[in-house]
Structures are given as structure tokens and as C-alpha cells.
Amino acid sequence: MFCGVDWAEDHHDIALVDAGGKQLAKVRISDGAAGFAQLMALLAEHGDSEDAPIPVAIETSRGLLVACLRVTGRPVFAINPLAVARNRDRHSVAGKKSDAVDAAALANILRTDMAAHRPLPNNSELVQAIAVLARAQQDAVWARGQAHNKLRSQLREFYPAILDAFAPHKHGLCSREARTILAAVPTPSMAAKLTRRRLQSLLKQAGRVRGIQAEAERLHEVFKRDYLHQLPQVETALGHQTSALIRQLNTACDNADQLEEAATQAFEEHPDAPIIRSFPGLAALTGARVLAEIGDDRTRFANAGSLKAYAGSAPVTRASGKSCMVMSRKVKNQRLAAVGYVWAFVSLTRSPGARAHYDRRRAAGDRHVAAQRNLFNRFMGMLFHCLQNSQAYDEAIAFPQPARGLRPCPTW
């Protein structure tokens, strides 16, 4: 017996088919506790049991319905909508479409092609919480970057002094000092009137504890320089807009900081955290992002190659006749690939073996991104092995040194 669910915002269409393809049930349920109870009763009526649960196919991996289905212990398959559309065309050439037809198509995909799909991983509750926090923190970082770019573009229109003042700063306009001063003086005319004492007070308000007098003197000199100005009323209007943008940036920065603290705290509670943090280039936050995407279900990936393909580090070969091309993988977990780039980059200064591997790939003709992706690919294989065997990272095993008198193997 196979179940297909075509989900919507306020209702879901259910279809049940048997091994021969005969549709035994077709019903629409509401999106709520009553609807879920109706679905469970329907499955039980058609032979569902704890020992032999009926598998369910649905076009999403998120939402309350999916979460409740996973709690029941049954296999839940998240099917790509494109696969559903292709399967629908197998049964009708007229191009008809309805929610009930899509639900039946989902059920038939499991009936005929279940081996080609993998159920959602059976991750622990802690990992699911880490995934929520780590992804939210990454989204907050991206939102912070967007807010920063909007503010910087605005300041270039009328306030070059503030850009010059915080150009040497590590975090630029996202620093607490820049945001505090901008909130106090949103126009260049107001900044030019700042006294050294007022600047010292603003720096202390931003949390600075060292070099306050020297920094206040530097900022005072920058703000007193000659710059081009907008007309007075235009400058005032732009100042009001800048105040609104700085409030958005403050909110984005606070969100990113608070979510980072929550994500790292949850990550440190997980038993896989020491293994993940043992790898060079991974800290608490990047480790939380890695764990959030790969989960702690040891059966999720059949082998290291599956994990590498999921991360996008393994290349794709397209061969047809005399044509054969090896390309980077486009369909992948974008979040895991993003943290993988950071992981490989930071490891170059933390691991001599990683640096040597990167240099060899560069010497072989790889560009920077390709060499880092190759290094990330190797790290993913090591991570799969270490997690499967509950073993911490060991530099000597990961990047063994060739014996004296022997040339290093190019595959190392």
C-alpha cells in the first residue's frame, strides 16, 4: 500500500494505491489536528501498523504535516515537483491536472520507483533544532549583508566622511562604533560639529574600552575634512532615510548575534560536536551549519560518495559518444556548499596538509575555487569516516607525509 499527499495551505488531498496500481481511497482532509487524525484513521483502515507502516510521498520536506508524519515512524519521501509532473504525463496525454490527480501520481511514484528515492532522514530532535537555528542564523547573516549594502549605497550619495572614517575597521559599517555614531549623527553636517568629548562618549557607548582618546582624535580629524555636500534640505531628508536604514541594520546585526549564540549553544550539546570541531577550519558556528545539513542519521548516506554528491563537492561527468566532460555539480545542498567554501578556506592556515593539498591542486592547473572544492571534497570523505567510526580528526592520518626518497602520490 502506498500513500500520496498533495499538500496545500488549508487542505490536503490524499490518495491510496495498492501494489497493482489500483486506487483504493481518495479523500480531502483539512490542515489541522482533525485532518491528521482522519489521515491516520484512513491509513489504519487499509492495513497500516507499527510494524509495517504505509510509506507516504509528499512534495515538501517541511511543515507541520510532514513533522507529524515523521513522528509516527513511517517513511516519508519528499518528491521533487518536477518528478510528479513527469509522472503525471505518463498517465494522461490530455494534460489534465488536479490535486487529486497529483496525489495519485505521488502514490504511484512510490509504487514503481521507490528504490530511486530516499526517505527523509531520521534525525534526532536536537539536530532538527540545530538545523532551525543554524539556517535562521545564516539567513540573518545574509539579511545583515543586504542591509549593510543598502546603507552603504545610501551613504555614498551624501555622506562620504563616515565611509572614510570606518574604512580601516574590520567590520566596517556593521561595527557597533559605526552604527552608534551613525544613529547619533545621520548627516555629515552633524558629524562635522562633533566634539572630541562627544566622540569619546559615543565610543564608550558602543563598548570600546581601549584607545578611546586616539580613536576619537582620528574620527574628529576625518569628520572635519572638506567633502562635497547635498543641498541642506536634501541632506536632511537623506539623514531621515539613513536613520531608518541604520535601524534595519541594527536589527539584522542583533538577530545574527542572538541566533549565533543559540545555534552554537545547541551545537555544543550534541555528541557529534567534538568530532566535527576537531577538523581544521571548523568552529562552533560553522560546525553547527555542517551538522544541520548532514544530520545525525548514520543511514542517511550509503557511502562517502553520496555525502560528497549531496554537498556538491564531487564533480559530475557527462559522457555521450566521443564527448566527455567533467563539471562542477550544480544541484546540491547550497547551504552545505557555502559553509564548505569557508571551511576549506580557513583550513589553509590551520592545517599544513590541507595547504599542501591545495598547493598541489593549484600547481596541477586548478583555479582557486576548483582547488578549494577539491579540498572540501576530501574533507567530506574524512568527515563521513570519522562520524561513522566515532573518531576525531587526525592530521597525520588525513594527510600522511611521503617517506624520504619517494615522490608524493598525485592522488594524495
Describe this structure in words.
The protein has 412 residues and is of the alpha/beta class. Helices cover 57% and strands 9% of the residues. It has 18 helices and 7 strands. The chain has a 5-stranded mixed β-sheet. A two-stranded antiparallel ribbon has the order 6-7. Strand 2 and strand 3 form a beta hairpin. Helix 3 packs across helix 4, helix 5 runs antiparallel to helix 11 and helix 5 crosses helix 13. 31% of the residues are buried.
Keywords:
5-stranded mixed beta sheet; globular; 412 residues; 9% strand; alpha/beta; two-stranded antiparallel ribbon
Strand-helix topology:
Layout: E1 2-7, E2 11-17, E3 23-30, H1 33-45, E4 56-58, H2 64-71, E5 76-78, H3 81-91, H4 99-113, H5 125-158, H6 160-165, H7 176-184, H8 188-192, H9 196-205, H10 212-223, H11 232-268, H12 273-277, H13 284-294, H14 304-311, E6 316-320, E7 323-327, H15 334-347, H16 352-363, H17 368-389, H18 395-398
Parallel strand pairs: 1-4, 4-5
Antiparallel strand pairs: 1-2, 2-3, 6-7
Helix pairs in contact: 3-4, 5-11, 5-13, 7-9, 9-10, 11-13, 13-15, 14-17, 15-17, 16-17
Question: What does this entry show, briefly?
Answer:
Helix content is 57%, strand content 9%.
